[in-house]
Amino acid sequence: MTPLAALDYYEPWWAQLAKSVVIFAVVLQMVPLVLMMERKLLGRMQARYGPNRVGPFGMVQPVADILKLLSKEQSRPHSSVGPLYALAPAISILTAVAALAIIPFGPVVDIFGTDVGLYGIDVDIGILYLFAFGAIAFYGLVLGGWASGSKYSFLGAMRAAAQLISYEVAMGLSLVGVIFTAGTLSLVEIVEAQKGMWYVVPQFVGFGIFLIAGFAETNRTPFDLPEADAELVQGYMTEYGAGRFALYYFAEYMNMIVISAIASTLFLGGWLLPFGIDPPGWVDPIVVLAKIFFFLFLFIWIRATLPRLRYDQLMSFGWKVLLPLATVNALVTAIVVVST
Amino acid sequence: MAEVVFFVASLGAIGGAVGVVALRNPFYSVLALVGHLLSLAALFLLLRAEFVAAAQVVVYAGAVMVLYVFVVAYIGGADRPVRTTGPGLGLAAPLFAGALFVELCLAMLGSGLKAIDAQGAPYEAGFGSPGQIGELFLTRFLLPFEVASYLLLIAAVGAVILARRRRGLEEEGLEDVPTVTVADLFRLEPGVGTQAESGGMLQDRRERDERERKGGW
Amino acid sequence: MDIGWYLAVSALVFCTGAGGVLVRRNPLVILLCLELMLNAANLALVAFARMHGSGDGQIFALIVMVVAACEVTIGLGVIVAIHRRRLPVDVDELRELRG
Amino acid sequence: MPDATGLELIAQDIRDGDPDAVLDTTYARGRATLIANPPAIRRVLEALRGKGYTFLASLHGVDYWPDEPRLGVIYELLDMEKVDRISVKVRVGADEPHVDSVTDMWATADHQEREAFDMFGVVFDGHPNLRRILMPEDYEGFPQRRDFPIGGEPVIFTFNEKRVRGYPE
Amino acid sequence: MPVAGTDRPDEELLTINMGPHHPATHGVLRLMVKLEGEVVRDCKPIIGYVHTGIEKTAEDKAYWKVIPVVERMDYLAYYFNAQTFCMAVEQLLGLEVPKRAQYLRVIHLELNRIASHLVWLGTSALDLGAISMFWYCFREREKVMDLFEQSSGQRMHTRYIQVGGVFEDVPAGWADKVRAFTREMPRRVDQYAALLDRNEIVLRRLRNVAVVDEQTLLGLGVTGPLLRAAGNPWDLRKAAPYSSYEDFDFKVPVGTVGDNYDRFKVRMYEMYESVKIVEQALEGLPEGPFITEDRKVALPPRHELGTSMEALIHHFKLVTEGFRVPPGEAYAPIESPRGELGAWVRSDGSAKPARVHMRDPSFVNLQALPYMAKDGYVADLIATLAMLDPILGGIDR
Question: pTM, whole model, 2 decimals?
Fold first, then answer.
C-alpha cells in the first residue's frame, strides 16, 4: 500500500503498531485525568472541594462516572433515526482520536536498533490532515442533532455546525503564519524549525487567534453555545444518554487534548525546552505532556471564570474580528518571510 | 493490501453515488454523497495525491456538503417519490446512463492508451505533496489559479445576494443589537474591564453620578 | 492497481450521476448528482496524473473543486431564494423561466 | 388611604356622573372601600383612574358564602404620587358571575382575572384569553369557593393511571 | 424527516416548548417560544405546575398555623410572606407591634432580602454561563441561613414572624454574628461586581437588552427592582413605611434605561442598602418585649404557666383553637425582594381566615416577560427571565 507519509527512514510494522497502541493508551488515559483535573480545579476555584469520595482524594471518580454511564440503559427518542443516532457519537470520537495520530511527542529516536518517530505518522499535509478530520467532526454533531428528532438537539446542532465552520476559517488562517515561517506543513518539521525561538513569540497574534478559535472549536466556555445548558439543554446531545453520551463527552475532552497538543506543538515548540536545554530523549514526551496540561489548565480556568457569549456576538466576533486579524497576520508574516 | 483498500473504497464510492440518486430523503442523499466523497479521498490517497485528498475532505466534506446540510435542514426534506418525472424519462434515464457507461468504457479501454494497464509512472518523492502543487499553481498554472480565486469571490458575493432575506431581521431593527466590531477592540470605555477598576471601586464614577443625578440615591 | 480500474470506477460514478440528473426532480438532489459527475471527472484526472507522473491532473482536479464549490454556492443560493419566495422546490414545476 | 370623608367625596363624585355606580362605601381600620355596582365597575375604575389611582396593584377574588351575592372581586388601586390606596369591591351572584374585564385598562389584570376565574368562576366579559391558569385546563369546579371541599386529589402514578377518574384510556 | 424545520414553511417559525423541566426556567415554568432562527417572536408563559392550593389550605387552619403555610409560597422570601400575612392579621386585630419586634422583623427581612438576591445572582450568572458565581453566592447565602438557624432554629421557612411580634428574642451573641456578616457582605458584593460587572461579555449580554419602558411596566403592574430599573423609585419601604422602616437611612437604587443591566445593578445595590439597614437596626435595637403583651393573641411566657391560672387558660385556648379575629378585610402590602407582596385576608370572625389571597410579585411580574423577550435572542430570553427573577412557588402558590 502506498504510504501515507513520505518517511525518509523505514519503520517496521511492529513499531507502527506499538506506537498506535501507546499513543492511544496514553491519551485515552488522559481523558479521565482531565476530567478529574477539571472537577477538582473547578471545585477549588468555586470554593468547594470537588469529588472526594471515590478512591483516594476522589481520584477514581471518573472511572465511577464512566462505569455508571456505560451501565445505563441505552434509550433513544421515538422520533429519532436509529442508525444515524447511533453512528453520530462514533463519528465524533473517531475524528477526535484520529487527529491524535499526527501529534509529535518527540523526534525520531533509536529503539532496539530501529529508528522510530515518537509520533503516529508524519504526513506531508500535516495540518491539513487535522482540518480534514475537523471537517468530518462536523457530521458527528449535525447527525447527532438531526437524528435525535428533537428541536433542542436540532438547534444545538445547527449552532454547533455554524460555529465550527466559522471558527475553522479563522483557525486555519491563524496557522498560515506558522506555516510560512516554518516553510512546511509537517508538524515534526515545524517543531524542529522552532529550535531557535518558539513561534509563540513571533506569531503571538496567530497564537491568540488559534487559542480563541480552539476554544470555539471544542465548544468550551465562553463559546459553549452549542451545548448552552441554560438555553438548549446540552444542545446536540440533549437526547443522548448512557454510553453514547459518554462517547460525546469523551470526544469533547479528547478534542480539548488535541487542540492543546496542537497549540503546544505549533507555538510552544513541542518537545523543545527553552534556553537550549537539551534533555535526553525520554524526557521529550513528558515535556509535550506538560505543555498539553498547561493548555488544559487554561481551558478549565477560563471555564470557571467567563460567562458565555450570545450567538450573534459569537458569530460577529469570529467573522469580524478574528478573521480579519488572522488575515492581516498571515499577510504580514508573508511579507516578512519573503523580505528576509 | 492496496487492492483491498481500492476495492473497499471504490465500493464506497459507487455505493455512495447510487445512494445519492436512489434515496428519497434529500438529507440522506447528502449523507450518501459525503460517504462517496470520503471514499473518493481514499482513492486519491491510493493514487498518491495526498494534497488533493486532503483538499477533497476539507473543501468538499468540510464546506460544500456543510452548505448542503444547512440548506436541506432549512428547506426540509420533501418525501416525494423518487421518480415522478413520468414513465418515459424514468425508463429512458437508466438506459441512457447505461449506454453512456458502455460508451465511456469503450472510449477509455479502446483508446489504446498504453499506460492504462500499468501501475502508472514510477513514484517520485514529493509527488502530489503540497509543495509540488503549490509550485505548479504559482508557476505554470498561475492564471487558472487567479481566475479560480476570482470565480470564488464572485460566487460568494452572488450567493449572499441570492440568499439574502427579503424580509425579516434587517427591517425589524435587530441591527440595534450590540455586536462586537474591530473598533470595539481598541475602544476602552471608561470603567470597563480594566484591572485597576476591578481591584478598586465597584462602580465607575461617571455612571454613579448619572444615577445619582436622576435621583435614585 | 491498474489505472484502468480507477477509470472504470470513475465512469460508473459519472453515469450514475448523469442518470440521477435525469431522474430526480428535486433541484437539491440534481445538484448533488452534478457533484457526482464532477467528482468522477476528478477521479479520472487524478488517475491520469498518476499515470503520467505529473502534477497537472491534480491541479485540474483542484480547479474543478473550486468550480464545484462556486456552482454549489450559487445553486444553493438559488434554491434558498426559490424557497423564500414560496415556490415549489421542484424542477418540473418551476417553469417560469420557460416563458 | 383617603380618610372616611375623602372616601365619601370620591363616592359622591362618581355618583354625580352615574347615580347607580357606587352602591356603598365602607371605611374600616384605615381601609377605604368603594362597593361598586357590577355593571358599572369599569366606569368606577375609570373615574378613580382619573383621580390619580393609576396603578392596579392587585385583584382578589373572594367567596362570601353563605352571604349573597356570593362572589366578590376586589380591585386594589394605588396612587403612586400621593401614596394612597383605595379598594373597589364588586359582588356578583354565583349563578350569573359576570364582571367586565379591565384588561384593556390595565394589562396586569390579564393573569389576575384569569386566576379569579380559575378559582371562583367569575367570568370576566371581554377578557381576551379567559382560561384556567393555575389549575389544569380540564379541571372541573372552582376550588377556592367556600363550598368546595378540601379533599384529596388522586395522584396519577403508573400503577393507577387507568383507575384515576378522567384519565383517558 | 424527524424534525419538521418549521411549523408552516411560509412563516419560518419554530415553536419550542421550554420547560416545564428546563434548567433555566428557575422552577417549573413552561414557556411556549416561537423562534425565527434564533430570534424570539413570541413567548407565552404557562404556569400552574406547582400549584399546591396554599390559599385553600390556609382557610382550614387557625391564623397562627397559616404562617408556615404561606411561608412556603415564595420559598426564597419566606420572611416576607410571613410578614405580610401577619401585618394583614394585625391590621384586622388592630394590634400594635412592639418596637423591638418591628426592628427584629426588619433585621430578618433584610437578611432574607440579601439571601434572596444572592440566589438570584447565582442562578442568573449561571444562566449567563458564569458557573462559579453560583457557588460564591451560595457560600454567602449559607451564612445568612446560619444566622436564621441561630435565631429561629430553622434555615428556611422559619416561622419566626408571628402575629403581634416575633417568635422569640434573638439569642445572646447573635448580634455580633450579624455584625460580622454585615462587615463582610459589602466586600463580597464588591467581589461579585468585580467578577461580573467588569466583564465585557457580561456587559454585552446585559446592556440594552430587554428594555421595557416605565409606562408599560406600570400598566403591567410590575413592581420592585424591575420597576426601579426603569427609573421609577417606587419602593414601599420608602413610600409607605411599615415596621419602622422610616427609622432607617437607606437609599433606593434606580436604573435609567430599564435594561437587564439596570435590573442587575439595582439588585446588586439593594444588597448594599440591605446591609446598611441591618446595621442600623442592630445599632438602634430598642429594649422591650419581642411580642405583643396581648395574651389573647400571643402565647404567655412559659414561666407564667406554673403560677398564673389565667396564663394557663390563655395558653390552652390559643393552642387548641387559636385566636379569633373580628370580621373584616385587610390588605397589607410590603416590599419583597421581587416587588409588592401583599396579603389580602378576610376574616369572618372565626379562628380561621375566610380567605387568604396573596398578591405575589412574581405572578404579576411574569406577565412582563413576553414584552421583554420579544424580538430578542433566545439567549437573551434566558437572561431576561433570570433578571425577572420569578419564583414559581410564589407564582403558582
Answer: 0.81
